[in-house]
Amino acid sequence: MATAKIVYASMTGNTEEIAEIVAENLKKLSMDVELNECTTVKAEDFLDADLAVVATYTYGDGELPDEIVDFYEDLQKLDLNGKIYGVCGSGDTFYDQFCKSVDDFDEAFATIGAIKGAESVKIDLAAEGEDIAKLENFAKSLVEKLN
């Protein structure tokens, strides 16, 4: 069975919920899923997964959350050539740099040779209705790209 590793950073619980929705949908698509908060794992753990997913929020006006900075920096030292990845997360449209951390991780994965498996999903605050459908499609696209 193919394995997916999802690493998330969440302050309010919104991004954790987003990560859980993705995990749930990947499981429905017969993936073996491991979901971890970013301070409990190392970026190198993605080397053992078939699919690498990061779910992060954006802090303030475009900053990476403090708790995921080390993970982000370590990720950029890896060679994930050919590994399928996806990035999703939450932000607040009040800020000019909406969900910039999602874009930062997307660029980091591309720089280290990973293959984008789905368009990134950016959610304003909490996932509801249409957002949940986007996350379902995100999971489906990742699995299709893997296969």
List the topology elements.
Blueprint: E1 3-8, H1 14-28, E2 32-37, E3 51-57, H2 69-75, E4 84-91, H3 100-111, E5 115-116, E6 121-124, H4 130-146
Parallel strand pairs: 1-2, 1-3, 3-4, 4-5, 4-6
Report what the structure shows.
- This protein has 147 residues and is α/β, with parallel strands linked by helices.
- The protein has one domain (3-146): 3-Layer(aba) Sandwich (Rossmann fold), CATH 3.40.50.360.
- 35% of the residues lie in helices and 22% in strands.
- It has four helices and six strands, in the order βαββαβαββα.
- It starts with a strand and ends with a helix.
- The mean pLDDT is 97.
User: Could you give a short account of the major beta sheet?
Assistant: 6 strands, parallel
Structural class: alpha/beta
Number of separate domains: 1
How confident is the prediction overall: mean pLDDT? Answer: 97
Write the CATH fold name. Answer: Rossmann fold
Per DSSP, what share of the residues sits in E-state strands of 2 or more residues? 15-25%
Q: What is the H/E string?
A: EHEEHEHEEH
The low-confidence runs, each spanning 5 or more residues with pLDDT under 50, are none
Spatial gap, N to C terminus: 12 Å
Give the CATH architecture: 3-Layer(aba) Sandwich
- The number of helices is 4
Give the radius of gyration: 14 Å
- Percent of residues in helices comes to 25-40%
> How many runs of DSSP E, i.e. beta strands?
6
CATH superfamily: Flavodoxin domain
Label the overall shape: globular
